[in-house]
Amino acid sequence: TALVNSGLNFPLAGSGDAQPVAGIGGTRACDWWFTDQAVLIDTAGRYTTQDSNAESDKKSWLSFLSLLKKHRARQPINGVILAISLADLMSFDDRQLDTHLAEIRNRLREIHETLKVQFPVYLIFTKADLVSGFMDYFGGFDESRRRKVWGATFQTAERDRNMAAGAPAEFDALAKRLADEMADRLQEETDPVTRISIFGFPAQFGALKGRVTSFVAALFNPGRSQVNVSLRGLYFSSGTQEGTPIDQVLGAIGRNFGGNSRPHLSGTGKSFFLHDLLTDVIFAESGWVSYDKSAARRAAIVRFGGLGAITLIAAAALGTLALSFASNRSLIASTTLAMGQYRETAAPLLKASTVTDVDLENVIGPLDQLRDLPAGYETGDLPTPLEETFGLSQRERLLSASKTAYRQALERLLRSRLLIQAERTIQAKMADPVALYEPLKIYLMLGGKAPKVDDALIVSWMKRDWEQNRYPGENNREGREQLQKHLRAMLALDDAYDPVFELNQPLVEAAQRSLGRMSLADRASALIKSAIYAAVLDDFSLSQKGGPEAQLLFERIDGGDLSGLRIPGIYTHSGFNTFYLRQLSRIAQMLVDEQWVLGGGGEQGDINQQLLKLGPELLDRYGKEFAAAWNGV
User: Fold this and answer.
1) Model pTM?
2) In this structure, what are the phi and psi dihedrals at residue 372, rounded to the nearest 5 degrees?
3) Pairwise CA distance, residues 601 & 584, whole Å
4) pLDDT tens across 339-388, in order?
5) Which of 62, 188, 205, 375 registers the highest number of CB atoms within 10 A of its CB?
């Protein structure tokens, strides 16, 4: 009842009233009270007295203690709350009281011997409401005053010191407090009978001193209990009010004023002096209990073993972190060194405020250095080495910075020169609209002015230009391959960035006007030929097809070497069937899709009528070009 009305928070109670959790199987051995600060185990009264079935009760009691010891070996409990009813204390005769004291001492001794800890005992005298005048004196207190502690906690830093000898002085101090506050209570009360009860309550309480102090002295006498049980404090409380108060002093005076007998209390359910005692004193001193030294030694062995394992793990972790730190520091150092070498190599190119040359051989070296940085674009798709991980990896940051530097270099060193070369090609082809179409298309794509960039077309066109015009021959193969790598990287990095160069708009407009004068057949022919670059058709080589004996059977019209004889792939059997006919079937859509190349000149009237004649005209033109390609050899 005291716990139910104590004002504690019981999370498992839900929205209903606080209820204990019964023992396993619904036994009446003990109740478990789960608060938000502690777990209270309320053992059955028969475990204390063992007067119903001594052998069974003792066995159950010791088994209960053994369970606590098993599952909480170091500190099985944090303290013992010993609740004694003042009604029993006032009504027991000496023999009954001695019997009760002996049983309590035995239980405390068994707790000490089984759990092997020195624990504090909080002695609470319950049913204080049965002291005559209690409810008259305290009944008007609000909840905050009823929560406070009415009792004494012995002030000592020695946890195993027996403070029972201080009980009389502490009791006198409590009685004095009641007497000192009595005048204020009398002023607040108008009913004469109640005032008599208030006036007499300090005396009623003081009359308990003999019983209370002798009980404390007998219970906590080391010689009698055979163990030094530590009394932490003594307190008075009331969990509910029912029964008839015991008038030890003022019964006669009460009757003279019309109060023939004290009324029977009906059980109001108010809690007096419990909440703060439990939360601020008992729960707050959970560390006051000692610990089992043997359990502590076992725990120490486990702890030191665990610490040893942790030390080994920590050493391994530190070693791993040290390795990761060294690896990342080495990566940063090597990247910094490589960047320095790049700046030194590229310095002449980077100093120029404008680009006027189109020599790509000079930019291959600096671009290779950036691409091949330790954490550069070339290694971007590779997994991070294990030794660089463990939370210290700097590779992603270095990779991001390296990619940015590489992209900027590609723009400044490569794209700028490709655009200049494209401009020069456009100027050179201005009088030949068919040959002009592809350079203009590539120029617009490189400058970011195309609705869609065809990376494969750009790469194949540049590759053919480098092979046939700018860097021909086997000696330049490696350079061409490196340029292709950088070109593909530049186009791949375009996905996140737009080109920053302004195109030569007058040149573009002049080229578009020239293309606008092309016939539809010329435009279609130019489109088909531009698709050759993306298709990557293999040229016909007589020396490869004819073998070493071809020199004996064939000769060129111009008398040249057969090894240099190559027929464009479009003018072969395979080129016609697998490429040209397919392009012819989709040429109409291609003409519409690529009107952007011609700008405003791409609009031509009555295109549908022209498309009807386009197929035969293109086939006739292709046949003439096919014959010319072969007749010329």
Assistant:
1) 0.49
2) -95, 20
3) 23
4) 888 888 888 888 877 888 888 999 999 999 989 888 788 877 777 776 66
5) 375
